[in-house]
Every structure is written in structure tokens, then in C-alpha cells.
Amino acid sequence: MNIWSDEFEGAVTICNTEGIITYMNDKSQKQFSKYGGGKLIGTNLLDCHPEPSRSKLVEFLKNPITNVYTIEKKGVKKIIHQSPLYENGIYSGLIEISIILPQTLPHFIRD
After folding, report:
1. Is the distance from CB of 46 to CB of 58 less than 8 angstroms?
2. Mean pLDDT over residues 11-24, rounded?
3. Which position among 7, 24, 54, 80 has the lowest Cβ density within 10 Å, counted as fewest Cβ atoms?
4. Which long-range contacts (CB under 8 A, 24 or more apart) does 58-62 make?
5. What is the separation of C-alpha 9 from the centre of its chain, rounded to a whole number of angstroms?
6. pLDDT on residue 103
7. pTM, to two decimals
8. Mean pLDDT of the residues in the chain
């Protein structure tokens, strides 16, 4: 089955409420290839995160909130959007979308 995120240009990773990775699109599998790529599906995200990220993730899994931030690694800027995922109104896990940002990014204020 081909879904919208399979070929999305950002990395999409989904885990269930226990932190088990249930989905990684192609970009996510490539992004995490040195850690196993698609073989990470079925493993626990908590095992992939050192402190303090691990504790934050535990808290997000217990108390679903949206967490958005930017990072820069080796000169590449990304925005990371982590959000609760719901199926039929029931909390089912977390989705993380990671998108590479251009070096200069226009910002528009619209009233």
C-alpha cells in the first residue's frame, strides 16, 4: 500500500504508545541507515535515545504533547515536529516529521 508519506521529502517516523517503531518512510529509513534503517521497525525508540532525550520521550509517550524545534548537524538545518497520533480519536502513539530547511528561510507575517 502506498501512502502519502512513503515518498514525502521529509523523514516520517511513527511509534506506538510504548515507543515501538511501527513505520518509517523511505527518507526516515535512509536518515537512520547507520542505525539499521528499516530494521528499526519493531524496536523501541527509547533504546535509541540517550539522556536527556530519553526522559523527554518517556514523558511525551505518557502525556502526549506536541514538541517542535530546530537542529543543525554538520551544517544541515532541520525542523523536527513531534506530535501525538490519534486513530479514531484514540491516542495511538507519536509521529515525528523531520524536514531539511534551506540556509535562508523567508518569514512572512500575515494579519
Report:
1. yes
2. 96
3. 7
4. 58/19, 60/94, 61/15, 61/17, 61/18, 61/19, 61/93, 61/94
5. 13
6. 86
7. 0.90
8. 93
Please classify residue 76 by burial: count the beta carbons closer than 10 Å to its beta carbon, then call 0-12 exposed, 13-18 middle and 19+ buried: exposed
Q: Is-contact 80 71, C-beta < 8 A?
A: yes
Q: What percent of the chain has pLDDT over 70?
A: 98
Residue 94 one-letter amino acid: L
Distance from C-alpha of 2 to C-alpha of 57, rounded to nearest angstrom:
29
The owner of cell 517542535 is 68
From the options 3.30.1360.30, 3.30.450.20, 3.40.50.1000, 3.20.20.70, give the CATH code of 10-101.
Answer: 3.30.450.20
As given in the structure block, the three cell numbers for residue 17 are: 504508545
Cell output for 110: 500575515
Residue ranges per domain, the chain? 10-101
